[in-house]
Write a structure and sequence with these properties.
7-stranded mixed β-sheet, 5-stranded antiparallel β-sheet, 1 helix, 26 strands, elongated
């Protein structure tokens, strides 16, 4: 009788142990898939790479809820330049990661160099073999620092270290999130009618006549961004419009909107003394005729439109031209 009771207790203990093991089985994240349409600009310091989804699968019925951490490292090691929104204690990176099906619970990342870390992403308890996905978005990089980007297509990947509470630690490598190449092409400077502009000594240069032209174009579709646009390489970019969230109560201000359009700098060198350089205030797309660029006062910082130069006095330009500031024979016009 004593032997029977001992066996019964041992069997009950084994059953309890097996049940405990089923409840404690952790979440496994095994795949990372990049969503990218391809190209970002080698001239850019803050172009956005494609979103990445991480696939995670539950272990067994009654498994404990998981809290996931994602450490994302750019390969090659390029600096992450995603903006910091807000100030003081409310300041947060615009980088985001969260459950794809319920992005309202997304968390903001912590950026350090070429790495961004997302901590405490809440994932509910999953049933046996149930799969959920996490989406990583709003990562922007300093593409201009990637060696060999000029004239080539340099792949950018994300290496992702997955860890957390009730999560199996694992290292995942996403497919290409972007390819870096030149965004600007076809730069050509010439005189009127595409001829070389030669100004003979002692011949008068009049402000009323065009003296030169500069032609340039984008190297791939949408290389020139417009103010307020989102990045076409992302699945979540369209969720953030008008610098605020639409339909999702994200925990911090989040916007991947462009605060200014693409700026083109045209530099003039060896300008003789007592020579004024004027350029149009507005450029119109010579191919489609729909896009415009405005002359602004600086290549960086706030976008401030340039004012028209005076049309009176000695040898003035025609209307709607701005004057380029020349110092030591050099000046720059920025559109």
């Amino acid at each position: 009788m004593a032997d029977f009771r001992m066996k019964l207790v041992m069997l009950a203990g084994a059953a309890a142990l097996a049940a405990g093991m089923a409840q404690a089985q952790p979440l496994s994240c095994t795949a990372a898939t990049a969503n990218t349409s391809g190209l970002i600009r080698a001239e850019s310091n803050d172009d956005q790479v494609g979103d990445v989804t991480v696939s995670c699968t539950g272990g067994a019925a009654g498994s404990a809820a998981a809290t996931v951490a994602l450490q994302v490292t750019m390969v090659p090691g390029v600096t992450i330049t995603s903006a910091t929104l807000g100030s003081g204690n409310a300041a947060k990176s615009e980088t985001l990661a969260g459950p794809t099906a319920n992005f309202a619970t997304a968390v903001n990342g912590s950026v350090s160099g070429n790495t961004v870390t997302f901590s405490n992403i809440a994932v509910g308890a999953l049933l046996a073999n149930q799969t959920t996905t996490l989406t990583i978005t709003n990562i922007k990089i300093q593409a201009s620092s990637i060696a060999g980007a000029s004239g080539t297509y340099t792949a950018v990947n994300e290496q992702i270290f997955v860890s957390g509470t009730n999560v199996n630690s694992n290292v995942l490598t996403a497919n290409n999130v972007a390819f870096v190449t030149n965004g600007l092409t076809g730069v050509k400077a010439s005189g009127p009618n595409n001829a070389v502009s030669n100004n003979a000594i002692c011949n008068q240069i009049t402000g009323a006549n065009m003296n030169f032209t500069v032609a340039f174009a984008e190297n791939f579709a949408n290389a020139f961004k417009i103010q307020g646009s989102t990045n076409a390489n992302t699945t979540l970019g369209s969720w953030f419009t008008n610098n605020s969230e639409t339909g999702y109560a994200v925990t911090a201000p989040a916007s991947n909107q462009a605060t200014s359009g693409t700026r083109i700098a045209i530099t003039f060198a060896n300008v003789p003394s007592n020579v004024n350089v004027y350029v149009p205030l507005t450029l119109t797309d010579s191919v489609g005729g729909t896009g415009t660029m405005k002359l602004v006062t600086s290549a960086t910082g706030a976008q401030v439109l340039a004012t028209a130069a005076a049309t009176s006095g000695n040898n003035p330009p025609p209307g709607q031209n701005g004057q380029v500031s020349i110092s030591n024979g050099t000046g720059t016009a920025v559109y």
